[in-house]
Write a structure and sequence with these properties.
Blueprint lengths: L6 H68 L6 H18 L6 H32 L1 H7 L2 H80 L13 H81 L5 H29 L8 E4 H11 L1 H7 L2 E4 L4 E4 L1 H17 L8 E9 L2 E8 L31 H11 L4 E4 L7 E7 L2 H9 L5 H20 L25 E3 L2 E5 L1
Parallel strand pairs: 2-4, 2-9
Antiparallel strand pairs: 1-3, 4-5, 5-7, 6-7, 8-9
Helix pairs in contact: 1-2, 1-3, 1-4, 1-5, 3-4, 3-5, 5-6, 6-7, 8-10, 10-11
Length: about 575
């Protein structure tokens, strides 16, 4: 049954047994120590004073005997003074000794003998000598001091000697008791120390057998498993806790072995998938090379015939316009327009395919400078439409400046193209910091867009209007989306604006700008976040002054609207640009 005890029960049993033994020894030591204190007290406070008092008693009796003999010789009453003093001292000493004799009956008996003999000597010798000397003179007193009287006093002295011997015997007995109790106390302390040593040794041996050895065995088996022998079964001996621990470790081993088997299978599948992916990557590389070759052919070989077709059709149009019938002029116009639209479509497809493929690397780009370039590129279109372009203070971001210029130029061109009739276009570009990103908004007062078409406008070749109503290839906003995503942002249409269209996109904030924003004074941060709201309010006011929105805009952009120009501010013809 003991073999089934757990470690806690075994240790607790051992501790209880050792504790009971130590408590018993402590109780015995306390009793022996108390008795030792009593015996020492008897020596110091009883037998020692009794020895001193017995000597004082003897001195008092000697004083009385000497005084009686001196008075018998001289007859001088002054010589009886020591007698009276000795008598008083005798009585006091006997009274003090009797107070210490409760535990010493034999000494009390010897003291009573001394008292009896003292009283007998006083009646038979001292008082008669004093009376005879006082009444009949010194001769009569001296006649009573005989050898018998001396012998009687010697017997008294012998009785006092017996009393002292008895006191000394009692003191020796008490001293012996003290020595024995002290020796017993030392023996008990040695036994307690031996119990502690034996219990400690037994505990160490038990821990070695029940804890250390099973743990060492378990650790050795675990190392075997850790070295790769996952099929090694772990078995543990010892208390039930260690047996359960070994079972749990073995269960963990089995689980790990099963997981490793699954991992091996998964690794094999992954290696197979990687092989397939490598083949697909090689196929994609080959396909990209073919696409690059196609792009080269499209940009050179395909555009050359188109340029010839367009050039000769334009020559026919200029030279023979009005000389042929009306239907021939219409056919020539159709040919010129088709060739030009094909050229724009090829150029836009090339631009779309090159985004993210032909990269110059990200650098710090000041969007204020980019907006100046955009203003120059869209100057002709803004003069034609009497458009107003404004922007707030723009941030510096990490990106490719040509792509970002193309992005903003597409948005501005789209806003100018999809304008309302008889309403001068107003385009406002603003930025604000939202959740660690720059949110940039292009807001106009154009025809707007219905919410159900908000996602379609970023799909390539998706058009919401005919090419006769709004010219273009339908690739402009797809290029915008690809450039934004290439820079790690996202783009969407805000359908909650009351008028016009608001296209918003995000760009990552530079780490140093983000750290500076976090380290800025918290009291100043609300003012920074309020800036875009005031801009939006100005835009809303501007939008409120214009008529109701017309149907939604097209998703395409017209490259024909863009033109190179200077980004200088001020007014040029009918164009107004303002830097906010």
């Amino acid at each position: 049954m003991v073999g089934g005890w757990n470690l806690r029960r075994r240790v607790m049993t051992m501790l209880v047994v050792v504790g009971l033994l130590l408590i018993g020894l402590a109780g015995a030591e306390a009793a022996v120590a108390a008795r030792n204190r009593t015996q020492i007290d008897a020596i110091l406070n009883k037998t020692a004073p009794l020895r001193v008092q017995s000597q004082e008693l003897l001195n008092a009796l000697l004083d009385q005997e000497t005084a009686v003999r001196g008075y018998a010789v001289s007859g001088d009453p002054a010589d009886l003074g020591p007698y009276q003093v000795g008598l008083d001292q005798e009585r006091d000493t006997i009274a003090s000794m009797q107070m210490l004799l409760h535990d010493y009956p034999q000494i009390g008996q010897e003291l009573r003998i001394v008292e009896e003999r003292t009283e007998q000597w006083r009646r038979s010798v001292a008082e008669p000598v004093i009376t005879a000397t006082k009444e009949r003179g010194t001769r009569a007193g001296q006649e009573l001091v005989t050898d018998g009287a001396r012998q009687q006093f010697d017997e008294l002295r012998a009785a006092v000697g017996d009393l002292q011997e008895e006191i000394l015997s009692a003191r020796e007995q008490s001293a012996g008791d003290v020595r024995r109790s002290s020796n017993l106390l030392v023996v008990l302390l040695i036994v307690a120390a031996l119990v502690v040593v034996v219990a400690g040794s037994a505990l160490l041996l038990s821990l070695d057998r029940m804890v250390i050895r099973p743990l060492i065995g378990l650790a050795a088996q675990v190392r075997e498993v850790a070295d790769g022998d996952y099929q090694h079964r772990i078995a543990t001996t010892g208390p039930p806790e260690f047996v359960r621990l070994g079972e749990d470790v073995d269960a963990m081993r089995q689980k790990i072995a099963a997981d490793l088997a699954e991992v091996r299978e998964a690794r094999e599948r992954i290696e197979w998938v990687n092989t397939q992916l490598q083949k697909q990557a090689e196929e994609l590389t080959r396909s990209n090379r073919d696409l690059e070759q196609f792009a080269y052919v499209a940009s050179h070989d395909l555009q050359e015939p188109l340029r010839k077709v367009a050039s000769f059709c334009q020559l026919l149009q200029r030279r023979y316009s009005g000389q042929l019938d009306e239907r021939a002029d219409q056919y020539i116009a159709f040919a010129v327009d088709g060739a030009q639209r094909m050229q724009r479509l090829i150029n836009d497809l090339l631009a779309f395919s090159r985004i993210g493929r032909l990269t110059t690397g990200f650098v710090d780009v000041d969007l204020n400078k980019v907006m100046g370039d955009v203003a120059g590129q869209t100057e002709a279109a803004r003069q034609y439409a009497d458009a107003e372009l404004t922007w707030t203070e723009m941030p510096v971001i990490r990106g490719e400046e040509p792509l970002l210029t193309n992005l903003l130029a597409n948005l501005v061109s789209n806003s100018i193209k999809f304008r309302r009739p008889d309403v001068p276009p107003k385009v406002h570009i603003s930025s604000r910091l939202v959740d660690g990103e720059w949110e940039i908004t292009c807001q106009d007062n154009g025809i707007g867009i219905e919410p159900e078409f908000a996602d379609k406008i970023f799909v390539i070749f998706q058009r919401l209007h005919s090419k006769d109503a709004y010219p273009g290839t339908g690739i402009g906003l797809a290029i915008v989306k690809k450039i934004v995503e290439y820079h790690g942002g996202r783009v969407w249409v805000d359908t909650d604006v009351p008028e016009g269209t608001a296209i918003r996109f995000t760009l990552p904030v530079r780490p140093e700008d983000l750290e500076a924003t976090v380290a800025a004074d918290p009291a100043e941060q609300p003012e920074q976040s309020d800036q875009p709201e005031s801009i939006a309010t100005d835009e809303t006011k501007a939008a409120d002054e214009s008529p109701d929105a017309l149907p939604e805009q097209s998703a395409g952009s017209d490259r024909k609207d863009g033109a190179d120009g200077s980004p200088e501010g001020g007014r040029t013809g009918d164009m107004r640009e303002t830097v906010g």
